[in-house]
Amino acid sequence: MSKIAFIFPGQGSQTVGMGKSLAEAYGPTNDFFLKADKKLDYSLSKLIFEGPQSELTLTFNAQPALLTTSIAVMEYFRQSGIIPDYVAGHSLGEYTALVAAGAFSFEEGVYAVHKRGEYMEIAVPNGEGTMAAVLGLDSDKLEAVTNEITESGHLVQLANINCPGQIVISGTRKGVELAGAKAKEVGAKRVLPLEVSGPFHSALMKPAAEKLKAVLDEMDIKDAKIPVIANVSAREMTDASDIKEKLIEQLYSPVQWEKSVRRMLDLGVTTFIEIGPGKVLSGLVKKVSRTVNTYAVSDVKTCQEVMDALKEGSR
Question: Fewest C-beta atoms under 10 Å: which of 49, 86, 231, 285?
């Protein structure tokens, strides 16, 4: 029997005005934006709906903004009656997936990712770390490159293994520059520097992980009601203690997105529904498997369109 996965986007998908149609729609959806404002003690909703984009993009704003919008979209979409067999999220999106799976409350999730964003911002002095996307090189070859550069004294490692031929590296500015040049020498088609504020998902994030642990220790983390495919292991996790360990490890470990998608395919998932702003993850899923069905829901209009499409497909 075919199965469905809900997948949730990570940082970079934020845009001013996202979620506004949901906040204006009937039903309880608006509560999520108000709940976020109350929990964080500032008007995140105003920033989401009115900007400016430069403020919204700051890590400690973007992360709670994306989680809030994605959960608001999901709650609206739940009117369809569709229940996922699995959930997963890319980096920050893993927290959204865990809220969706009932592992912790929305309020705890939005606070945790706000603090996560703060800790990520301050872990490495601005300008000392960076990230770059490497296109057209397999992970084994690229990992050999990053290991060589790290051993020479300039830390760099694989950060996001997104799909065949698209991997993000992260580390010191010099390490990323050297690894990018070496990657081109051994066959990479392109190396694209990313506009980020730090070397996320690298060992340089370990100080942030230590601070995040204190936040997670205070949270009421429960066993997940729906299996969550973990970024770190690309395997299902439901146990509360395992969830906490994986979230800490996730900050300084690669996001195994390609393996996560392949795991869901192995588990029988044939339909992936991206819930939240953008269509980045839908595109990555299609690069892993062209035969699956992918949908993206981000507002009232797309929710209704996908609800209708799925009902039509089930006839």
Answer: 49
DSSP label of 109: H
Domain ranges of the chain: 3-123+204-313, 129-196
Catalytic residue among 70, 90, 170, 201: 201
Tokens of 148: 């060589």
List, for residues 91-120, the tens digit of each pLDDT value: 999 999 999 999 999 999 999 999 999 999
Closest CA to 209 of 112, 307, 80, 94: 112
Measured distance CA(191)–CA(134) in Å, rounded: 5
For residue 154, indicate whether it is catalytic.
Answer: no
- Angle separating helix axes 93-100 and 240-250, nearest 10 degrees: 170
Q: pTM score, two decimals?
A: 0.96
Is 90 an active-site residue? no
**129-196: CATH topology:** Alpha-Beta Plaits (3.30.70)
In CATH, which superfamily holds the domain spanning 3-123+204-313?
Malonyl-Coenzyme A Acyl Carrier Protein, domain 2 (3.40.366.10)
